Q: What sequence folds into this?
């Protein structure tokens, strides 16, 4: 049985290719929002997202559309996050749909991220509707882009719909294609309830609000539900649909997209990918594909001012309410005192969390260099220890081997940058595993690359080396044994735990030199000479000195202006107060930051 | 302080400590590339009105009693741009409002090339008995970089004219730490200046101030930033050369022939009391630090508006003032007094004045600074060490 009036679909697009603008136009064309209510980019509700131009969290909206065949349809648009760190969330959003609009910029062609999501969509058996956007631009090449899409998807070039989301040109054609080509959901309202959680957010009144796609059965308001992964059962506070605000309804049934306000206190109890069923009439099996996302990248977050520790703790707790992927635990550093070891899906996720902590909670943070999670096999016992902080690496003599995560990386770019990218990947220990030419002048390279090499400004280098034209996607492949060593950094002969890093033995010398040179520039001259060293074990690989300060005098005291002199001294004192003490050496925040971005 | 008068009241005797007066003259013919002082190049028409306003302010600042004054300093700007009549009028006003000591030190800043013998003779007759010449360098390329309007031969002439006019007691200002300056070129400037046998030297390390042309040149790469280690070497060289020439290094940036230290500046360094008069001047008296309005036109307007003046030491031209807390007064004492390299800070006087010993107030800081070899104590005095001369800010900021 099908519910022939419902169409569930999403939009797949690269950053800046116009997903949000297209979504706005669809909302306008279906009169879901009046022009007056129309706010630019309704779907991206967080400021940060708007600034970064990407969608961090998925969202959904229900539209009603009267098609040319005279029938009224319910169109559920499910938004998908636009970054590699959130690929699991993307896969769940795709699972909630029967079709996907593939938006490609007529001036740019397909990018790696889009391609990756497109493959996910094809795997999820979604009907793909290619749309070529920005045809109003003089540099638009809709025919070439259509051909590229045909080469990749096998969808005939002439089926791609040329539009301009900006001017509104041909938007109606997109809606008609959705109605015509996206299959209606297969539904069975008699079966026990199975609803897929494809997103959620925390609301301080209604608790966790689960965004669901109902596959089987139906739920009525105030019917007790059960989360199938953890057996948590609750009586929902409310159920409803997105218009795009939350609008309560009495019933959600198979084929529909809506929300369940669960009253749960954290998103961890109601994770993306989980299946919701009824407590009193449970389904036998959950929907397939649930997994707990695991953090891949770890870093220490420390407040610059020690007294902000409590505030940082509270801020992390609050963020975690809405972010099931964020993990943290207290960590102590001899250099930075009290902070938290935090785990993230990737670097981008880490940046977002850091920015939110600094912006929304007015915290001043020092983040240590990001690390991956290593598996350390101990000699003799064969015990496997998992560590995510270089400081925790056991003594080398007790270690049998160290394994690190390797990723399957695909990089999509114009072929003129082939050499640049090969160089970059090989320098980062990359192994080429495949190449394809999906369109004339375009190439996809596949590499196996250690994640630890990717998280150290790989993406920045990729972008700068290709004038922004290359794009990248990656997923976890496997753990592999590598010849890894701990690189210690010593300031005035004291090892600084917050600066230690785990690196490949062949890279240790090079990285040691970079770190020492960066620190020598960032640590101001002190009252005494300060040696900066990089060492592996007892072997010093690199050394440089921050020379002792020789002169620091305010010569002038013009016309008895002691107040001005005083102000300058107070400023100097304030600057010093913000520094971290390593032994007797004053180290500014930037010194810790500088280690995060080392030039090759 | 050195002089004082007693006022006989109804059974009350009040002792007034002697003051210094700073008089600001905010006019220049040209603004030099490193200068961020309160000075203006387009206000020549204001000079007479300004002198009148300054005379009015002196009248206000007097307060209820003629306080003793032992030093006057005309600073700028370029005070030597003022007519000798204006200078005489201003000094006359001081004599009327204050008990000016007959042996008072009266200094005028002058730029070489702005004065001639006749001018100097007249201002000398009016009471000026000490000059301070802005020499800065003897090297043409350095003077050009600083955008000074004179060359070194003009300095030689100015010094000769000063002597002829009877002004033997003069200071020369020089600048080191300049972009492009070398140790050798600095030595050349020092030796050239020493050959003029001045009574006093002020040597200033260049600070590139925000908003100056030099700051812009630094930003756009026209000049490269001065090397702080070279500046330290230059300072070190100056210490040696001037000591050889028999000059006493009495303050971080100041050297003098025995007995000819600048009395006016000593008031600042002893954290003593001085009135600041004229646009943008700063004063410190009766436990208050204050600042006069900067804009000369606003200053003149304020002094021309008839309102009853606030109480001593403020005048109607004062823009801001701040009553010092005990803690501020303590640290001000330290950061000024320690600049006097031989005299330093008398620890007993400090304890008596603030009811707290230095150790009680700054124990750990003192220990740390002594350990680093920046401070030393002996004969009841706290002094910067020779190493501390070079690193005085590292000492001072820990006290503020």
A:
């Amino acid at each position: 049985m099908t519910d022939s009036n419902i169409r569930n679909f999403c939009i797949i697009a690269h950053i800046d290719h116009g997903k949000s603008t297209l979504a706005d136009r669809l909302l306008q064309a279906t009169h879901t929002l009046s022009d007056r209510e129309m706010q630019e980019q309704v779907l991206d509700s967080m400021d940060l997202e708007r600034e970064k131009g990407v969608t961090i969290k998925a969202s959904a909206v229900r539209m009603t559309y009267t098609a040319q065949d005279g029938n009224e349809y319910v169109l559920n648009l499910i938004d998908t996050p636009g970054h590699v760190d959130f690929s699991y969330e993307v896969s769940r959003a795709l699972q909630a749909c029967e079709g996907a609009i593939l938006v490609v910029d007529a001036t740019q062609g397909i990018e790696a991220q889009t391609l990756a999501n497109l493959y996910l969509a094809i795997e999820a058996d979604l009907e793909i509707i290619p749309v070529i956007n920005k045809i109003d631009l003089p540099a638009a090449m809709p025919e070439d882009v259509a051909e590229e899409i045909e080469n990749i998807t096998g969808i005939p070039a002439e089926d791609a719909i040329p539009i301009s989301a900006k001017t509104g040109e041909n938007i109606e054609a997109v809606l008609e294609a959705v109605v015509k080509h996206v299959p209606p959901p297969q539904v069975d309202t008699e079966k026990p309830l199975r609803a897929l959680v494809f997103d959620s957010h925390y609301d301080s009144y209604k608790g966790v609000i689960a965004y669901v796609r109902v596959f089987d059965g139906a739920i009525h308001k105030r019917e007790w539900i059960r989360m199938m992964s953890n057996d948590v059962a609750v009586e929902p506070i409310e159920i409803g649909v997105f218009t795009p605000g939350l609008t309560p309804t009495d019933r959600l049934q198979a084929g529909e997209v809506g929300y369940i306000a669960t009253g749960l206190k954290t998103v961890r109890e109601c994770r993306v990918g989980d299946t919701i069923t009824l407590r009193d009439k449970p389904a036998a099996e959950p929907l397939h594909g649930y997994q707990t996302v695991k953090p891949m990248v770890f870093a220490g977050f420390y407040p610059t001012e020690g007294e902000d520790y409590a505030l940082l703790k509270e801020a992390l707790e609050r963020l975690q309410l809405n972010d099931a992927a964020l993990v943290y635990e207290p960590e102590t550093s001899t250099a930075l005192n009290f902070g938290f070891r935090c785990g993230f899906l990737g670097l981008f996720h880490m940046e977002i969390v850091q920015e939110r902590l600094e912006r929304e909670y007015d915290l001043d943070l020092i983040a240590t260099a990001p690390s991956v999670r290593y598996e350390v096999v101990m000699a003799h016992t064969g015990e496997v220890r998992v560590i995510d902080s270089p400081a925790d690496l056991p003594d080398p003599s007790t270690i049998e081997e160290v394994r690190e995560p390797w990723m399957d990386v695909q990089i999509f770019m114009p072929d003129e940058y082939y050499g640049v990218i090969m160089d970059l990947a090989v320098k980062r220990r990359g192994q080429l595993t495949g190449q394809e030419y999906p369109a004339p002048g375009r190439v996809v390279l596949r590499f196996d690359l250690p994640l630890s090499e990717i998280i150290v400004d790989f993406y920045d280098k990729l972008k700068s080396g290709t004038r922004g034209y290359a794009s990248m996607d990656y997923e976890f492949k496997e753990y592999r044994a590598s010849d890894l060593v701990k690189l210690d950094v010593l300031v005035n002969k004291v090892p600084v735990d917050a600066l230690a890093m785990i690196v490949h033995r062949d890279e240790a010398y090079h990285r040691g030199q970079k770190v020492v040179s960066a620190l020598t520039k960032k640590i101001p001259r002190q009252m005494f000479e300060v040696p900066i060293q990089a060492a592996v074990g007892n072997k010093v690989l690199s050394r440089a000195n921050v020379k002792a300060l020789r002169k620091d005098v305010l010569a002038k005291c013009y016309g008895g202006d002691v107040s001005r002199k005083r102000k300058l001294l107070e400023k100097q004192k304030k600057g010093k107060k913000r520094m971290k003490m390593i032994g007797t050496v004053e180290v500014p925040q930037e010194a810790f930051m500088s280690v995060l971005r080392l030039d090759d | 302080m050195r002089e004082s008068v007693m006022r006989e009241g109804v059974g009350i005797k009040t002792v007034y400590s002697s003051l210094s007066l700073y008089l600001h003259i905010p006019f220049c013919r040209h603004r030099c590339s490193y200068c961020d002082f309160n000075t203006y190049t387009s206000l020549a028409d204001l000079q007479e009105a300004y002198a009148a306003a300054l005379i009015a302010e002196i009248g206000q600042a007097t307060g209820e009693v003629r306080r003793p004054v032992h030093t006057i300093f005309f600073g700028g700007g370029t005070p030597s741009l003022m007519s000798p009549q204006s200078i005489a009028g201003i000094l006359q006003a001081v004599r009327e409002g204050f008990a000016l000591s007959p042996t008072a030190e009266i200094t005028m800043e002058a730029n070489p090339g702005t004065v001639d013998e006749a001018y100097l003779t007249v201002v000398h007759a009016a009471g000026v008995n000490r000059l301070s010449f802005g020499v800065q360098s003897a090297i043409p390329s350095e003077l050009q970089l600083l955008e000074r309007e004179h060359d070194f031969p003009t300095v030689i002439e100015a010094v000769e004219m000063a002597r002829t006019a009877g002004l033997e007691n003069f200071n020369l200002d020089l600048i080191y730490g300049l972009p492009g300056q070398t140790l050798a070129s600095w030595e050349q400037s020092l030796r050239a200046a020493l050959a003029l046998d001045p009574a006093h030297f002020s040597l200033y390390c260049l600070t590139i101030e925000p908003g100056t042309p030099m700051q812009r040149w630094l930003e756009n790469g026209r000049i490269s930033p001065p090397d702080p280690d070279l500046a330290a070497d230059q300072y070190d060289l100056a210490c040696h050369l001037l000591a050889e020439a028999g000059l006493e290094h009495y303050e971080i940036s100041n050297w003098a022939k025995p007995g000819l230290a600048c009395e006016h500046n000593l008031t600042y360094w002893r954290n003593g009391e001085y009135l600041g008069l004229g646009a943008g001047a700063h004063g410190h008296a009766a436990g208050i630090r204050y600042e006069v309005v900067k804009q000369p036109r606003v200053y003149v307007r304020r002094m021309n508006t008839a309102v009853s003046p606030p109480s001593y030491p403020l005048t109607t031209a004062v823009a801001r003032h701040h009553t010092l807390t005990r803690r501020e007064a303590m640290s001000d004492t330290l950061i000024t007094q320690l600049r006097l390299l031989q005299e330093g800070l008398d620890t007993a006087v400090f304890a008596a004045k603030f009811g707290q010993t230095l150790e009680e107030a700054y124990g750990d800081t003192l220990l740390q600074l002594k350990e680093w070899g920046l401070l030393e104590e002996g004969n009841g005095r706290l002094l910067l060490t020779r190493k501390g001369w070079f690193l005085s800010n590292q000492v001072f900021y820990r006290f503020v």
User: Anything to note?
Assistant: Chain A has 14 helices and 33 strands. Residues 194-278 of chain A form a domain with the Elongation Factor Tu (Ef-tu); domain 3 fold (CATH 2.40.30.10).
